[in-house]
Backbone:
C-alpha cells in the first residue's frame, strides 16, 4: 500500500496536457507517475532515451575529406596508378638511398565499405576508400558492382550528396580495372551479391 507522498512542481499547462493524455489511456496522473517510477527502478535508469537529435549528416563533408587524403597520398606516393598503368611503379629510392619496389594491392571493394567511408572519412573504410581514390589500392570493378554502388549510395536514407557519390564512383572507374566475372562460388549468401564473389 502506498504511504509516501511525493510533491512535484510543474507548470499548469504541462499538468493539464499530461493529465489529458493519461486520461485517454485510462490513467490518472498519480498512477502514471507511479508507473514511471516503477519502470525506472526495473530498468535501473530512465525508461526512455535521453539523447539530443543528431545534426543531419552532410555526405559531402566525407567526400571532401577523402579528396584531401587522396591529394596528400598523390603528393607523397611514388607514382600515380590508374587503369592504364596496371600498378607498375618500378623501383624507387627511399630516404636511405636504397631501392625498393612499391607493392600494389588489387581489391573488390564492398559497397558497405563505401557507405561507411562516406559516413566517416576518418574510419578504416574511409582510409580504404582514400587509398582506392589515390590509386594505392586498385579497385576491381564490373558493371554489376558499379550499378550496385550507384543504387546503394544514392539511397534516400543516406542523404549523401549526389555530386559526391558521382565523384567517388567516377574516381573508382578511372582508377579501377574492369574484370569479367568468373564462375559462381558456392556459399554466397544472396544471389544479388554473387557478382562480388565471382570477381
Residues:
Amino acid at each position: 500500500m502506498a504511504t509516501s507522498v511525493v510533491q512535484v512542481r510543474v507548470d499548469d499547462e504541462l499538468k493539464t496536457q499530461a493529465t489529458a493524455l493519461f486520461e485517454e489511456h485510462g490513467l490518472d496522473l498519480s498512477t502514471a507517475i507511479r508507473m514511471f517510477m516503477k519502470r525506472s527502478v526495473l530498468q535501473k535508469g530512465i525508461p526512455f532515451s535521453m539523447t539530443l537529435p543528431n545534426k543531419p549528416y552532410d555526405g559531402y563533408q566525407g567526400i571532401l575529406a577523402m579528396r584531401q587524403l587522396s591529394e596528400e597520398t598523390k603528393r607523397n606516393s611514388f607514382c600515380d596508378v590508374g587503369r592504364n598503368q596496371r600498378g607498375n611503379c618500378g623501383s624507387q629510392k627511399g630516404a636511405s638511398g636504397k631501392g625498393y619496389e612499391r607493392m600494389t594491392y588489387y581489391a573488390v571493394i564492398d559497397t558497405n565499405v563505401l557507405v561507411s567511408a562516406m559516413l566517416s572519412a576518418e574510419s578504416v573504410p574511409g582510409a580504404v576508400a582514400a587509398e582506392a581514390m589515390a590509386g594505392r589500392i586498385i579497385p576491381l570493378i564490373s558493371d554489376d558492382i558499379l550499378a550496385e554502388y550507384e543504387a546503394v549510395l544514392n539511397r534516400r536514407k543516406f542523404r549523401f550528396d549526389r555530386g559526391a557519390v558521382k565523384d567517388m564512383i567516377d574516381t573508382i572507374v578511372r582508377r579501377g580495372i574492369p574484370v569479367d566475372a568468373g564462375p559462381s562460388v558456392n556459399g554466397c549468401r544472396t544471389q544479388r551479391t554473387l557478382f562480388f564473389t565471382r570477381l
The first strand starts at residue 91 and ends at 93.
